[in-house]
Specification:
By secondary structure, this protein is of the alpha+beta class. It folds into two domains: about 10-20 and about 90-180, OB fold (Dihydrolipoamide Acetyltransferase, E2P) (Beta Barrel); about 30-85. About 45% of the residues lie in helices and about 20% in strands. A five-stranded mixed β-barrel has the order 1-2-3-5-4. The termini are far apart.
């Protein structure tokens, strides 16, 4: 019987190389930090369009300091989020996928795995690169983080992949996890 090895994309390999050290990949970190800014911009665009003549009058009239204060608040919020995610611990586990989870048409579905004890594990969101393919009844090495009592999937690779030894946690992973749990 021919065993089919699940392919791991180049981007996923890059994520695994960084996550195995207990760090977030720059793309994952950037997405987490800028997440509220994107939502805020979506809300702000219609407001700016509706109030553009009033905003021009306010800025010309000397209330440009209000705009500067708003920008300062944005920078402060982003800096706090950046610091928070730079210090968050990353976890590693061996889990088995419960169902095929690779269709872009099912983007709303949460990822569902079973851990080594057989307990169901759901991931609220994922920060894996696009083009991922998770097949049912395949055991994966999974990197994730805990955020507000919910799990965020960072990266994963099938345990039967020939390069899996390159993606397993390093000694630095355990040290970083221990340091970040105490801070």
């Amino acid at each position: 019987m021919d065993v089919q090895v699940v392919d791991v994309s180049q981007r996923m390999q890059a994520y695994l190389q960084v996550n195995r050290q207990g760090k977030l990949h720059p793309a994952q970190w950037r997405e987490l930090v800028t997440e509220p800014v994107v939502m805020l911009m979506l809300v702000m665009v219609p407001v700016i369009i509706l109030l553009r003549s009033l905003l021009v009058t306010l800025f010309i009239g000397g209330l440009w300091l209000v705009g500067l204060a708003v920008i300062a608040v944005f920078v402060f919020v982003l800096a706090r989020r950046a610091r928070r995610y730079a210090r968050i611990p990353i976890y590693s586990a061996t889990m088995t996928a419960e169902e095929n989870q690779h269709s872009m048409l099912k983007f709303w579905k949460r990822y569902h795995f079973k851990d080594e004890d057989g307990a169901s594990v759901y991931f609220r969101k994922n920060l894996m690169p696009e083009g991922r393919q998770i097949r049912s009844r395949v055991t994966y090495l999974v990197y994730y983080m805990q955020e507000n009592d919910q799990k965020v999937l960072l990266s994963c690779a099938p345990l039967d992949h020939p390069r899996i030894s390159y993606w397993k946690p390093t000694p630095d992973f355990v040290n970083r996890q221990r340091q970040r749990k105490t801070s």
